[in-house]
């Protein structure tokens, strides 16, 4: 089973341009409590390098592109975000890394919770321990 879950957004538009509407509990599968965006990321910079205990997110490359690496403690998968019509659903307890930002990349993230430092797992070894503790097959 793939840990990469992509969402497709319906683009509406005409000769004037395009529009995508995001709605909580509709095309965003949770209540939205926070939105932020990352831009002007310098060449060869890696972002992310953490997981969340409870937070769920949808990442959308509004402009440009970047590569995500997702890791569930047993498997790692890469996915490129390069279209505002697609969102990457990032569930809780997934290690995430963002690489290879294009110079013009604007990455928007829609989150299920407000910022809470205690929800972060910033050390990969701690993340693996958390995965093992939450794995029902190990109980």
Automatic annotation (TrEMBL):
* Xref: CDD domains: cupin_QdtA-like
Domain Sugar 3,4-ketoisomerase QdtA cupin, residue spans: 4-130
InterPro entries registered for this protein in UniProt = QdtA_cupin_dom (IPR008894), RmlC-like_jellyroll (IPR014710), RmlC_Cupin_sf (IPR011051)
What's the protein called, per UniProt?
A: Sugar 3,4-ketoisomerase
């Amino acid at each position: 089973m793939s840990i990469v879950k992509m969402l497709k957004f319906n683009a509406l538009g005409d000769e004037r341009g395009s529009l995508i509407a995001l709605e909580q509990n509709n095309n965003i599968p949770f209540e939205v409590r926070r939105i932020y965006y990352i831009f002007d990321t310098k060449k060869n910079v890696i972002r992310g390098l953490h997981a969340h205990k409870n937070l769920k997110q949808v990442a959308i490359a509004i402009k440009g592109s970047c590569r995500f690496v997702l890791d569930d403690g047993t498997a790692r998968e890469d996915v490129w975000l390069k279209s505002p019509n697609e969102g990457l659903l990032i569930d809780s307890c997934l290690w995430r890394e963002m690489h290879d930002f294009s110079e013009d990349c604007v990455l928007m993230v829609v989150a299920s919770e407000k910022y809470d430092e205690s929800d972060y797992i910033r050390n990969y070894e701690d993340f693996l321990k958390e995965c093992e503790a939450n794995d029902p097959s190990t109980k």
